[in-house]
Structure formats: C-alpha cells, structure tokens
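Final report, Chapter 2: Outcomes

The project's central promise was a pipeline that accepts a single protein chain and returns its three-dimensional structure in a standardized token representation, suitable for archiving and comparison. That pipeline is now operational. To close this chapter, we reproduce one record exactly as it appears in the project archive, with the input sequence first and the structure output second.
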Amino acid sequence: MDDSQQRKLIEAYITAYNAFDVGAMLKPLHVDVEIRNIAGGQTTHRATGLEAFRKLAEASAAMFAERHQTLRSLSEFRDDETTGLRATISYRGTLARDLPGGPRAGEKIALGGTTDFSFRDGVIATITDRS
C-alpha cells in the first residue's frame, strides 16, 4: 500500500469525522483497530475493535454541536513498533454539553495536535491522537 492510498484512507476518515458520520468513519478501519487519545501526556481514551471504536465515536460525537478537523500535513513516522503516517491536525468544535470540571455547553474549543495512523491489510489499523 503506497502513501497516496494511505492518504485517501485518512482523508475519508477525517471527512466522515467532520460529518458526524460514525458509519463512514468505520469503513477505512481494520476490524481490530486500536485507537488511543493522549492529552497532556496522559491516555484519556482507548478502544480496540470496531464495536468499541463505534461506541467511543458515538459518545464523542454527542459531546459536540459542531466539530471540524483540518489536515495540515502528513509525514512518515517510525517508532519502535510501528510505521505509518503522522498527520498534523488543527481542531475546532463547539460543545453540546458541559464537560465535568471543564468548559460548558456552547463554548468553543480550538486545539492542535498530531494523529499517527498505521495500516494493515489495506486499511487503518491504529490511530493515536495527541493534543
């Protein structure tokens, strides 16, 4: 699988994310997909498998009245266990409900970060979001 095919999978995933289309988000993912969200160096969410991913994506979507990820750049990465593409992402959203101890419904959030995507069997196998 070449970089252009991998990029198309990432773009399809982000397009579905922005549209709140959880079903379409699942299409470019491996049946055993692993996702991690790391904020401030701490793992805040982790899921393995399409069903666990679906539940996490639906819960996340319900927290936002609107949200949008913008892909700023893609580069190859390699660490001890994985190779893939690292996306630099900018993110904005408006909360649909209050977060415990945090921002309240209606408040806008803007973040930057990276997302590492690795691939197996022609689809996305792991997603690691860092902000």
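Archive annotation: The chain has a mean pLDDT of 95.
This record, like all others produced under the grant, will remain available to the consortium after the project formally closes.
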